[in-house]
Every structure is written in structure tokens, then in C-alpha cells.
């Protein structure tokens, strides 16, 4: 199994510059203890998130040179596809072929209003953008005449290192998003908010879509995002993680119109955490990961390990403990 750590910028209410130094320390420790990838998400006009994932990944990659780097996720419809293709190719060159483009349609109205992009156009824009980005990465000269984008004889330089192009992982929970991942992406990249029943339902939709497209499903594997916090014992892990996760899920997600969490929902921590969070001692984390691996055939797990208000020291301890006690269980099997 391949391991990835999702380092989020701005989740801790500190000055951005201070937090970046902490994020860099977390990334370097993750690389040292056996994680293979680092991921950054995109949101705008929100102090808890980062607006420039590719810029941040380039900086992290300059220090953590062995790690794959990926967007998790980039809100593709509010970005220019030529610019994404250029900067993605540049990042692939800088990392010597270790860039993964993770994308989704987005869901927060604020992100779209900031750039004057109608929310209702997001699916159409993304499908056109994916076609453009893939062509720019694989073809020497590209012309395009579409509903949203028009250009003639565009060639990007430098070219990506990975051939035929960097992988594209597509997130989303709606049927249309999962089917889009089957048709236009290299894998479905489910986020951390869906519980196990939703994951299994989504995987069935994804598998069925691949079959209809005539694609091979004999050894189908998917990556997966989860929230993770590990401590020396169960009670300590729950005590240290619970208040921060409650704030994020019942505060941030519920107030930002996420489809799985609404302000009207009378949800408690136990209900929210079921099959979403991996929290406990190392043995409990191993058991949870084994469950996902056996039920979903997961081959790359990306963990968000820094939650709003959590101290840097606790995050570092969780990363270190996971690397020392959990990763060896899988790498030595």
C-alpha cells in the first residue's frame, strides 16, 4: 500500500507564514518516516485554506524531493485550463515526474463568486477543461473551439516528464462526478467526508461506468482520503482529536453548504466519525486501514492529520507514531 499525508494550510488559526513553516516540518517528517506523497487543497477567501496549491506544492517539493505531490483537490472550473496545463507540466519537471493532478467541480458558492463563474456551469467547464489539459500535455500544438474556451495553435513548454501525461484523479460524490472520473480521469479520488456505505455505493457506480466504457476492472484499485489521528492509546487520541474535528465538520462543513453536512443536521461526533475518521492507537489504525483495504481495494491512502486549532506538536507526534508503528505493519507483510 502507498501512503500519503495531506498537509493543509491555514487550518490552524495562525499567521500564514508561521503555519507554512509548520507545514514544511510536517511534510519533511512524513517523508522521513515513510509517507510517499504530500497534497494541498484549494479554497479562496477563507483564512483556513490555501488559494494556490500548485505554488505551495512547488515549495514543498523543493524540500521533500522524494515525495509525490498532488492537488487534493483543485477546483478546476474556476481555473484557466491552459494555465493549469502549463503549471502542472512545470511542477512535473521540477519533481522529476512525481506530480498528480487531483481535481473536482467544487461546491462552495464563495469560490465561484470570487471569480465570477456561475456555479451552474461547473460541470460543463470541467469536462471541457479536462479535454484541453490532456491534449496540451500530449500534443505539440493544440487548437480548441468550445463553449467556454477558445484558442489556436497553443504549445506548452516545458513538456511533462510523465508519459503520456501526469495522472488525473477526479473527486466528487454525485453519480455524474463518479462517471466523469471513469470516462475522463485515471481514477476516482473520494474525499474524507463519505462514510463506508457511500464509498461502496460510489465504487459500484465507478466500476459499472468503467465496464460500460469497455475499460479493465479486473484489478481495480482506488485512492482514498481519510481523517487520521493516532496517539499512544485510544482515549488520548479521541480526547485530543475530537474537539477539532467537531469544529471542522459541524462548523466549517455544515456552514459552507457541503451536501453531506447541513446546518439542520442533528449529528453527534460518534455518528460523524463512523467509517470516516481513523482515530485511536496504532493497532486500531491498522485495523481500520485493513477494513478499507479489504472492502474497497484501496492502494493509496491520503490522510488529513492537521485539524483546526490542533497544536503543531500533536500533529508531529501523530505523524511520527504512524510512521513508526503503522506503516511497518504493511510494508513488512
Could you write a compact summary of the structure shown?
By secondary structure, this protein is α/β, with parallel strands linked by helices. It has helices at residues 16-33, 53-63, 81-94, 109-115, 122-138, 175-184, 196-212, 234-255, 269-273, 282-296, 312-331, and strands spanning 2-6, 37-40, 68-71, 74-75, 99-104, 142-145, 150-154, 168-170, 187-188, 222-230, 277-280, 298-304. The chain has 11 helices and 12 strands.
Descriptive overview:
Helix 3 packs across helix 5 (122-138) and helix 10 packs across helix 11. The protein has helices spanning 16-33, 53-63, 81-94, 109-115, 122-138, 175-184, 196-212, 234-255, 269-273, 282-296, 312-331, and strands at residues 2-6, 37-40, 68-71, 74-75, 99-104, 142-145, 150-154, 168-170, 187-188, 222-230, 277-280, 298-304. Residues 7-17 have low confidence and may be disordered. The relative contact order is 0.14. A hairpin with a 4-residue loop joins strand 6 and strand 7. It has a domain at 1-35 and 189-215 and 224-333: TIM Barrel. The strands form 2 sheets. Strands 1, 2, 3, 4, 5, 8, 9, 10, 11 and 12 form a 10-stranded parallel beta sheet that branches. Strands 6-7 form a two-stranded antiparallel sheet. The chain starts with a strand and ends with a helix. It is α/β, with parallel strands linked by helices. The longest helix has 22 residues, at 234-255. The radius of gyration is 19 Å and the shape is globular.
